[in-house]
Specification:
By secondary structure, this protein is of the alpha/beta class. Helices cover 32% and strands 24% of the residues.
């Protein structure tokens, strides 16, 4: 049964909110928002995680088994309970089908975000990659400024240790605009950044051209009185004015040049119009983060935020959990955990590491995410991963998918032209790391590879452990 969206729904008509898939990063932000607003909040998720445990501590009622028609009594009244659904939930899910047949009001996360932000100025960040860090950086700069903001993010900000900001006095809402399941088409941005549009989610869109069409439909939704900030090279049209940005460009409207590391700080010079901002210091390193910062500079400059407040926010930004996140950082070894799960993201990560740590041995542990993505970008993954000095693959993380015959990490390993490569189980990775010297170590992927991060940290910090 298809769930229809009614734009006349008012969130104020409900007292309780029930989530199907509450543990996702975007869904948990919404759960926190509704708790902040005084709603009774609970729901289902497939597996426990640090996010669900935190939500339980904050007052959420969460369970991990499909209760079918026996949902908690606190949410049994269809007139006072709003149900919010993640598209990752299978259509045959028992609770979901019970709620549909009982006539509950059921909305997707994107639809709820659209309702919440109707009265706010939406500053949205879309893109195949870069959107989480860019939206979190944008929210941090605004939150550090006199303007403040609300924010619904796809990652945990290190600065405020959350994926949610609520400020009822601010007129701005920073939103990570997710292209998965065409969710971003429910938003109505005042202004937006589009960081990239490399094909992804082809299990949803079908073809590259349909994927690009989805982004064009999103660009069409930007308010004509606002503006669109585009990574140079993207060809989308908009009813709003367009400004482009790029690092090491002569033609973009906002240019980042002279990227460098000085005394441990990552700096660049920013050029736009007739202006030059010299020595802009970034709190997080990396070529890709310089481009993310440039996009935020462009948007905030056009909004009218002054240079000093933008600079201060950029300098004090500590990053996002699992986005170029330093786990171990000392003179003898570096360990960085990163969410990269697309070939372009892996390229940006490795290029940045080579810039920052020239001459160091770089070991990458990569967990492919989704059978379909591995199939669609098999050769591209191989080309980027073989640039590592040592490649360690984990089995594919399936997420919402069933296996695809023949698509395995073994197949990807065979495509990688690197003599120092291997396929290991997570427990075998830990034993392997105990036996070697690790100069620069990366864990890479969007699955559950983060579950071994603390164990790896312990091994690196305690070399005597055998």
């Amino acid at each position: 049964m298809e769930v229809k969206f009614d734009e006349n729904i008012r969130l104020s008509d409900f007292k309780s909110v029930y989530f199907i898939g509450i543990g996702g990063i975007g869904m948990s932000a919404l759960a926190r928002y509704f708790m902040t607003c005084g709603y009774n909040v609970g729901g289902y998720d497939k597996t426990p995680s640090s996010l669900t445990e935190e939500l339980i501590r904050e007052g959420c009622l969460i369970h991990y088994e499909d209760l079918k028609n026996e949902i908690p009594f606190q949410f049994a009244d269809k007139n006072s309970t709003l149900v919010i659904l993640t598209p990752a939930i299978p259509k045959e899910h028992g609770e979901l089908n019970y709620l549909i047949h009982q006539g509950f009001t059921i909305l997707k996360r994107s639809e709820v975000l659209g309702l919440i932000t109707k009265s706010l100025k939406g500053l949205c960040v879309a893109g195949t990659h870069g959107k989480t860090t860019t939206s979190t950086l944008l929210a941090h700069i605004l939150n550090s400024s006199i303007w403040k903001c609300n924010a619904f993010l796809g990652g945990i900000s290190t600065n405020f240790n959350s994926n949610l900001l609520v400020n009822k006095q601010s007129e701005f809402a920073v939103i990570e605009a997710d292209e998965f399941d065409r969710s971003f088409l429910r938003l109505s941005p005042l202004a937006s950044i589009i960081t990239s549009a490399d094909p992804d989610h082809l299990d949803i869109y079908g073809t590259d051209s349909q994927f690009q069409e989805g982004f064009q439909l999103y660009a069409n939704k930007i308010n004509e009185n606002g503006f669109l900030i585009l990574k140079e090279g993207l060809k989308f049209r908009s009813f709003a004015p367009i400004k482009t940005y790029s690092v090491n460009s002569e033609t973009a409207d906002y240019k980042g040049k002279n990227l460098r590391v000085e005394n441990g700080n990552f700096l660049m010079d920013v050029y736009f119009e007739t202006k030059c901002w010299k020595d802009v210091e970034l709190g997080v390193p990396g070529i890709h983060n310089a481009e993310n910062a440039l996009a935020c500079i462009a948007l905030l400059n056009l909004l009218g935020l002054d240079e000093l407040q933008i600079r201060a926010g950029l300098k004090s930004f500590l990053g996002v959990k699992r986005r170029f996140e330093y786990i171990v950082r000392n003179e003898s070894q570096i360990y960085i955990d990163d969410y990269a799960h697309h070939p372009k993201e892996i390229k940006a990560l490795i290029d940045s590491i080579r810039l920052m740590y020239p001459g160091k041995k770089i070991t990458g542990i990569f967990q492919p995410h989704l059978f379909s993505r591995t199939r669609d970008f098999l050769d591209e993954f191989a080309v980027e991963l073989e640039k590592l000095d040592e490649v360690i693959l984990l089995p594919i993380y399936p997420a919402r998918e069933l296996p695809i015959p023949g698509i395995t990490s073994d197949l990807l390993l065979s495509k990688i032209d690197n003599d120092n490569k291997k396929l290991l189980e997570p427990s075998e990775v830990l034993n392997h790391l105990k036996l070697q010297k690790n100069e620069v170590l990366l864990t890479i992927g969007a699955g559950d590879i983060d579950r071994i991060v603390l164990e790896i940290k312990t091994i690196l910090n305690n070399p005597e452990i055998k």
